[in-house]
Amino acid sequence: MAGETRLTDRLIYEILSVVGEIPEGRVPSYGQIAALIGRARNARLVGRVLSRAELYGDYPCHRVVNHAGRTAPGFIEQRMLLEKEGVAFRENGCVDMKQFQWITD
DNA sequence: AGACTGACGCGCC
DNA sequence: AGGCGCGCCAGTC
Q1: What is the pTM for the complete model shown?
Q2: Which nucleotides of chain B are near protein (any atom < 7 Å from a CB)?
């Protein structure tokens, strides 16, 4: 790709690279991924990219939740996929971030 | 150009 | 603990 003039092309590459590194049974938040690519304030952009991630290839985007552990709206199989990896959900329908957050630091 | 939108986050209450 | 408001920022109208 010679002339990616759009900032988002690079964002997409960096975000998906990080997503591809998420270990099984771990759940980073959008904000953590944003921080890992040096854009701590762009959590919303991470969500935007992931909402269309299936267009770019096969990535474990089901492992990404928000800071509260809530799964993505409109992504029904996300919970099932996570539970299949051993991620447990709380009564309120959120992932127990204390226990499964990828980067606890 | 200006306003609205959204798979978000954090401080407050 | 859960809900509300405001700040972010690229994309869309």
Answers
A1: 0.91
A2: 6-10
Which amino acid, residue A57? G
Identity at A33, one-letter amino acid code: I
pLDDT in tens, chain A (105 residues): 444 456 678 889 999 999 999 999 999 999 999 999 999 999 999 999 999 988 888 999 999 999 999 999 889 999 999 999 999 999 999 999 999 999 887
Distance, Å, A42 CA → B4 C1': 18
Strand partners, A95: A89
Tell me how far the alpha carbon of residue A97 is from its chain's centroid. 13
